[in-house]
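User: Sequence in, structure out. Go.
Assistant: Echoing your sequence, followed by the structure tokens.
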Amino acid sequence: MIRALGAGCLAGLLAFPLAACSDDRPVVQPRVLYGEEPVDYPLEMYDASIEGEAVLRVRVDDRGRVDSVEVTESSGHAELDASAVRGMLATRFTPARRGDDRVRVWVMVPVRFSTRPRPDDRPGT
């Protein structure tokens, strides 16, 4: 398997807290632990140069584990979507926080499958 590009690109996450709405403190969004990117690019799709982007709605619990994943925008290929979901279920995050409290949140995660190398994957960089 080949790693999907953009799977760890979580800087633009949108977090929606599941805790009580009466708390006005900002939510510190979850981050992927250890820079892991467990989303695999299915080899047969990569070999056929099939690309796409799936947008996932991911629920991160108060321990940083993913307990629910929904495809909100399909890549157009069921195999890519399924790989994105499997990868997100294996991803571990730092828990989101509101003040000192850990909170469950929903985050939107784009997962891009591309055969082009990422800029930081170029030799000599």
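User: And one key feature?
Assistant: The radius of gyration is 15 Å.
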